[in-house]
Structure formats: structure tokens, C-alpha cells
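Section 5.1 Outputs to date
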Amino acid sequence: MSRSPAPGGTGQSGARATVRALQGALAAENSAVYGYGVAGAHLSGARRAAAVRDWVGHENARDTLTAMLTARGSQPQPAAAAYALPFPVRSAADAVRLAAVLEDRVTAVYLGLVALGEPALRAFGAAAVRSAALRAAAWRGSTLAFPGLEVPARRPPRTAAHTSQPATSGTGASPAPSRSG
């Protein structure tokens, strides 16, 4: 049985897939840099220090991705002036929740690099997935079973008033990660 090449393997289509994955990661890092600026404005003390540390880490990742794209002869997409946030951030609790969402989105995008055929990019992507998942867990206070993949949304607990209604078997899925957030 022959083995099919991994996505982003060899040839021109592989090069395009690689550039697309790198551009996606760059967009996610730019979004995270913006989001941490918003989050940091609502935090103080140790949480603010953690947000600044993570913000700098995303700036460094952004710069690394920019260099990787340039080395491949591709023009890195510039950052937007502003990004849509997934929800209004008006408190420290919102800021902490935003930081976790940002990291979840970064994790999801880096899975695109893990799927490529080039071993160095796969390793880079895997390291980035691990780092972002650990940051998300630190902000959330818990881990996810499969970081970067869609997970069922938490459902509110059933109360006695709701027990007369039949339970549904569907699981509410969280929205797919986007590059703007």
C-alpha cells in the first residue's frame, strides 16, 4: 500500500499550503497581540505581568513567522489596525476569559503547521500548539481534552423546573476559531 504525502508536502501545491498555514499562524499571532493589549488594560498585579509576558511571546512568534514567510519569498500579511473581539471586555474576569480564547484560537491555527509535510515546520507547529495550550490552561484554570479542536460548549445544569422536558442528545459546539479575535 502506498503512502500519500502529508499536506503541504512537496511541489508547488505543497509550497502554497505551507505559505497559507504560515500566513494563518501570523494572522492569529497578530490578533493575539491586539487582544492581549485589550486584556492587559483590565488586569493588574500578577495577572497583568502574565498578560505582558504572553503579549511579548506573541510578538516574538509574529516576528518569527514574518521571517519564515520572507525566507520563503512570500510577503507577510500586515496586521490589521484593530480586530473584532469575541465579546466585550469590561472587567478583569472578561480579560482572563479573552486571554484563554486567544490562546485557544492560536492553538487551533498552529495545528495547520503540524499537518504539513516539512519536519521542521511540523516541529515548530507542535511546539507552538503546546505553548498556546499551556497558556490557555493557565488562564482558564483547566485543560481541554484536545487543545485546538472544537469542544462541546458547557451546558447550564438542569434544574427541577426543566426535568419535565425531554433531554436533547445534541452537543452544542463552540464556534470555530477564527483569525480575528
